[in-house]
């Protein structure tokens, strides 16, 4: 049976809001986890500000472990954790948990990459002036790498948009759930096209905003 698009638009708008909510909450939580992990990977590595090889090797292995698991498998694998944390394994709230597990280590790697782009001479100058390791992190590393970090967080956000769509396979809500329920299972091609176009628009807006913000920071 064909869906009446005029009557279906409220459901499409609701699914769009669910996707934006999932991505927003997941990005915030994953950033709060990923940024400190990225900093730790840089400062504890060999030659880092507070070199600690055992800690670095352990953290590096954990990040690599989670980075190596495809999202759709991670989504299913941590269902017991998801149920424990939010009391359910379906819906928008449940989708946030695997999204954070997936994107936190990814953001850690992106932040690590951005910090490693900071010129060694700048770090050496700060050390020569007597700055402590954490002063160097917050007054040198992060300000110098901020433009790159913004671009990398933009990449992470776009990745979250794609992952949130995959969450629809397990009833995660949002545009992905809508596309699967109507566009795939009921062969409603028009619904599928609309959801794809909305996801494209979201990605374009995120990428444009990230580019503008990064460029503005770089010029300061």
TrEMBL record:
A Pfam family of this chain: BPD_transp_1
Highest taxon listed in the record's lineage: Bacteria
Ranges of residues in domain ABC transmembrane type-1: 16-210
Keywords: Cell membrane, Membrane, Transmembrane, Transmembrane helix, Transport
UniProt membrane topology term: Multi-pass membrane protein
Localization per record: Cell membrane
Keyword Transmembrane helix included in the entry's annotation: yes
Gene3D superfamilies the UniProt entry points to: MetI-like
Residue stretches spanning the membrane: 20-43, 55-78, 84-108, 149-171, 191-213
Family affiliation: Belongs to the binding-protein-dependent transport system permease family.
Name recorded for this polypeptide: ABC transporter permease
Organism the protein comes from: Halobacillus shinanisalinarum
């Amino acid at each position: 049976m064909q869906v009446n698009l005029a009557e279906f638009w409220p459901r499409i708008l609701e699914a769009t809001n669910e996707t934006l909510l999932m991505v927003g909450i997941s990005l915030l939580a994953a950033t709060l986890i990923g940024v400190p992990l990225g900093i730790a990977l840089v400062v504890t590595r060999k030659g880092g500000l507070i070199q600690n090889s055992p800690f670095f090797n352990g953290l590096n292995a954990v990040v690599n472990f989670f980075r190596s698991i495809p999202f759709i498998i991670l989504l299913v694998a941590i269902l017991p954790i998801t149920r424990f944390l939010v009391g359910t394994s379906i819906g928008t709230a449940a989708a946030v948990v695997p999204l954070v597990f997936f994107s936190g280590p990814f953001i850690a790697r992106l932040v690590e990459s951005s910090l490693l782009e900071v010129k060694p001479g700048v770090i050496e100058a700060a050390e020569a002036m007597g700055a402590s390791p954490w002063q160097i992190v917050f007054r040198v590393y992060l300000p110098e790498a901020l433009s790159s970090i913004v671009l990398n967080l933009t990449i992470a956000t776009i990745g979250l948009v794609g992952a949130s769509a995959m969450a629809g396979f397990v009833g995660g809500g949002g545009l992905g759930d809508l596309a699967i329920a109507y566009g795939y299972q009921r062969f409603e091609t028009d619904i599928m096209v609309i959801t794809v176009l909305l996801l494209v628009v979201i990605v374009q807006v995120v990428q444009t905003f990230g580019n503008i913000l990064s460029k503005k920071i770089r010029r300061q």
